Amino acid sequence: MKTFQTVELSLEELEAVVGRVDRGELAEGDAAIIRAAVGTIKLLYAVLEEKNISIKRLKRIIFGAKTEKTKTVLKDQQDGQNSGSESEEKGAGDEPAVAENAIASVRDQVGKEQQSEQAAQEKKKPKGHGRNGAKDYRGAERVIVCHPTLKPGDRCPECPKGRLYDTDRPAVIIRLVGRSPVQATVYELQRLRCSPCGKLFCAELPEGCGDEKYDRSVGSIIALLKYGGGFPFNRLAKLQKNFSVPLPPSTQWDLVDTRVNRIYPAYDELVRQAAQGEIIHNDDTPAKIVELMKENQDIRQQDSGSDSRTGMFTTGILSKCGDQKIALFFTGRNHAGENIGRVLQHRDEDRSPPIQMCDALSRNVPKDFAVILANCLLHARRNFVDVAEIFPQECSYVLEILKKVYRNDAQAKLRQMPYEQRLHFHQTESGPLMEELKQWLQDQNQPPTFEPNSSMGQATSYMRDHWEPLTLFLRRPGAPLDNTICERVLKKAVLHRKNSLLYKTLHGAYVGDVFMSIIHTCELASMNAFEYLNTLEEHSSELFRQPEAWLPWNYHLQLTAASNQPA
């Protein structure tokens, strides 16, 4: 909404102006009055639209956004149509713009060709299509069924001259059976008593049954269901009851709580390894802890004006350490900046400051540790998405530029460019685009085109005020464009919150943080989290002595070394 001149006018004076308009007898100064009246109408319209934007934001928070693609946001307009109209207004519809579009088209074509070559080499079926073959069932029990009457070397029943041989290509048939997540076996050991002396003789358990009632795999599957899949204890208890294998919620908690005491060195080592990362992402999401909620009630009763912190958060941190990605979770009263500070305490002193990617909230930045700050470009873009219906022309200009920048980044990822090459590519291809956008943002502020407190005014000022961290990818090798990867990490905590709602104590939140961190790090490393949790439990003593050797991406080396040792 554009600014306008303010004119003090009474209702009678306004009616007099309307009368002169009807008679066609405009006096000197009436034009300024009419402009002010039109500006007032625009202001009221903008205020109503602001309310609509707030309602739409609330609906998106509750129900989620279907998509924020530029084409959808701009109501399926042709790509470049709006930016073309903007270019005409700015006198930019000349040869450089045509050449830029041609370069983008060539780049897209190259990307498609590379994708086709890669798909042909790997010979992978499209995602989500086709059936799972027998090789995909790696966890299935394998049963070899021999022919009941024939064997290799026998004469052919149909052709007496020939002899049978094994083809080494068995016919494969898959059968799936529904069972409870936790199964039970009841062993009835026969007991014999001597009639004269009364001594009892009891049969022994079969070999391999173990000494404990609950196998180590029970704690692993419960932790994987609850902290990896958002399956609450009560829900699992009801499921087990349907299979007539009772597993009360209290028993489930005891199992995972005991497990944490035996595997927490792996979590501590992940924290230490994450502190050495070159790029660290972090973000917050709300959490609920009953223990802290009771503290909040006491604080309010004792002193209603207290400055004590009452918020509760789960911080998600994703650290890129070379080829490895580590996911960490911290739940409590601390903000993301304070939690990333806890991690950076373990950073080696000889390392240079890492790149930190987060949104522009000040509470996301550590106070006592130096970082190279990068802000999420998607957060800045989303502000324009929210007001695209009210300011379609202006928002189209911004969204189309960012669309080209993200297309360039996709090309860099597709071609697997090293950090330095990616930086040069962005400086060449995305740099001019971002410089053009920067100039446009400055033009909107000299003089102000939009009301500063309006949604559009806040969108432009947010991007203008945080321009340096928003464009770090044009100056630093490896700097990401946005924080999307960390938001995906936080989905683990959000899934748990949607299903289990809350934690009872801070210790319970710590248990959840440990398992979520280990499970999600396994997923990022394409490792089997269930097998990993079982291995940590089995080799707990070795884990305590040398935790750095029992991480998701290297623990197999320890198992291989142990199997090769002479008995």
Explain this structure.
This protein has 567 residues and is an alpha/beta fold. It has 21 helices and 7 strands. A 5-stranded mixed beta sheet has the order 5-4-3-6-7, with helices on both faces. A hairpin with a 2-residue loop joins strand 4 and strand 5. About 5% of the residues have low confidence.
Quick structural summary:
With 567 residues, the chain is an alpha/beta fold. It contains 21 helices and seven strands.
Low-confidence stretches: 76-106
- Structural shape: elongated
How many helices?
Answer: 21
User: Radius of gyration over alpha carbons?
Assistant: 33 Å
Strand order of the largest sheet: 5-4-3-6-7
Query: Which percent range describes the beta-strand content?
Result: 5-15%
Helix content: 40-55%
The pLDDT mean sits at 84
Give helix and strand order, one letter per element, not per position: HHHHHEEHHHEHEEHEEHHHHHHHHHHH
Largest sheet: 5 strands, mixed
Number of DSSP strands? Answer: 7
Distance from first to last alpha carbon:
80 Å
Strand and helix map with partners:
Blueprint lengths: L10 H13 L6 H34 L6 H4 L7 H10 L4 H28 L68 E3 L6 E3 L13 H14 L3 H10 L6 H26 L4 E8 L3 H13 L10 E9 L2 E9 L3 H9 L10 E4 L13 E4 L1 H10 L5 H23 L4 H11 L1 H13 L11 H11 L1 H4 L13 H17 L5 H19 L4 H10 L1 H6 L9 H10 L3
Parallel strand pairs: 3-6, 6-7
Antiparallel strand pairs: 1-2, 3-4, 4-5
